[in-house]
Amino acid sequence: MENPTKSQNPKFAFFNDKIIPISEAKVDIRTNALQYGTAVFEGIRCYWVQSEERNYVFRMRSHYERLLDSCRIMMINIRYSCEELCNITIELLKKENYREDSYIRPFAYNSGLDIGPKLIKNNQDFFIYTIPLGEYLNLSKPIKVCVSSWTRIPDNCIPPRAKISGSYVNAALQKTEALLNGYDEAITLSSDGQHVSEGSAMNLFMVKNGKIITPPVYNDILEGITMNTVIELAKNELDLEVQQRPVDRTELYTADELFFCGTGAQVSPIGSVDGRITGNGKMGEITKKIQNIYFKAVKNELKQYSHWCTEVK
Ligand code: PMP
Question: Which of 29, 35, 105, 171 is the most exposed place for a label (fewest CB within 10 A)?
Fold first, then answer.
């Protein structure tokens, strides 16, 4: 992840129920979540709007609702309500006082020290830290993507709808394979290998004949908040038809436009898949429109979506 040299390092973390210096937020090497990946997390962005000299957290409630759902699946009793989690996040960001875009990482985990992977009879803890964060994927130059030889994980193996830390081994394998083979990112197929699922840590959209199409939840995707944002903006503001339906691998080769979206990725154009150029290889017109309106929404420039933006104050 890009971390420009001018960025300040985070100074604080919320850890064991209070905000403390981040250098003091340490876990035991025996921690169950470190050993077995028994943790859930979120990734949330906060946007610095220079003209207003203000920070806005984007869709914070939706992220914490998803965190609480992930906790239910993983039997983690987080002890905070959605409201409390939002308030703690704002307090932490106020203390950091970033004057650039940043990223928030809440993490709920099994903190027990016993040997053995299990979700019950374990201590559980929670922390949040933040970091300055610019672009995660290129936003202007379309990236080179391959279809991964690793498939996505099914719900009856590691539920992809929860953001479970252990499941990111799957993402790491995909992304590493892509990088080693000279690509920027990977697209994975669903666990049965039959349909397109998503990117290593982002959802995928295809544009064909003016419609925008994205894989459905039953193709093993994480139900992305950015994906939902893109769907809302495309339908309501750009008057585009949106379809959520299974997508075949070869549809990627004949798509007019392709883009990734996610909290980290934002809206990132794809220039080729498996060596097949997407459209004319440049960022497509619809992708450009979606990217423009997305950045207006996250910076609280669209009053009809201001409920998505929480000011840090
Ligand atoms: N899929 C995966 C596997 C992810 O890790 C992410 C990032 N959270 C996404 C999709 C995009 O989700 P969101 O838009 O909610 O960040």
Answer: 29
Q: Is 202 in the pocket of ligand 1 (CB under 6 A)?
A: yes
d(CA 138, CA 45): 17
CA 62 to ligand 1: nearest atom: 15
Residue 89, φ and ψ in degrees, nearest 5: -60, -45
Strands 39-41 and 102-110, sheet pairing: antiparallel
For residue 226, the 8-state DSSP code is H
CA-CA distance, 44 to 87, in Å (whole number)?
14
Q: State the number of CA atoms in the 13 A half-sphere of 133 facing the CB.
A: 19
The domains of the chain, with CATH numbers, are 12-132 (3.30.470.10), 143-298 (3.20.10.10)
What stretches in the chain show pLDDT beneath 70?
A: 1-6
d(CA 70, CA 105): 14
Tens digit of each residue's pLDDT (9 = 90 or more) over 104-161: 999 999 999 999 999 998 899 999 999 999 888 889 999 999 999 999 999 999 999 9
Specify the residue with its C-alpha closest to ligand 1, atom 16: 263
- CB of 201 sitting under 6 A from ligand 1: yes
> Ligand 1 centroid vs 114 CA: distance in angstroms?
31
**For residue 196, what are the β-bridge partners?**
189
Candidate of 222, 260, 268, 308 to mutate for ligand 1, largest count of ligand atoms within 8 Å of Cβ: 222
Helix, strand, or coil (residue 4): coil
Tokens representing residue 285 in the block: 């017109």
Q: How far is the CA of 163 from the centre of ligand 1 (A)?
A: 8
Q: Is the CB of 268 under 6 A from ligand 1?
A: no
Which pTM was predicted?
0.96
Half-sphere exposure of residue 65: CA atoms within 13 angstroms, side-chain side: 7
| Ligand 1 atom 5: residue of nearest CA | 201
- Ligand 1 midpoint to CA 43 (Å): 8
Ligand 1 centroid – CA 267 distance (Å): 12
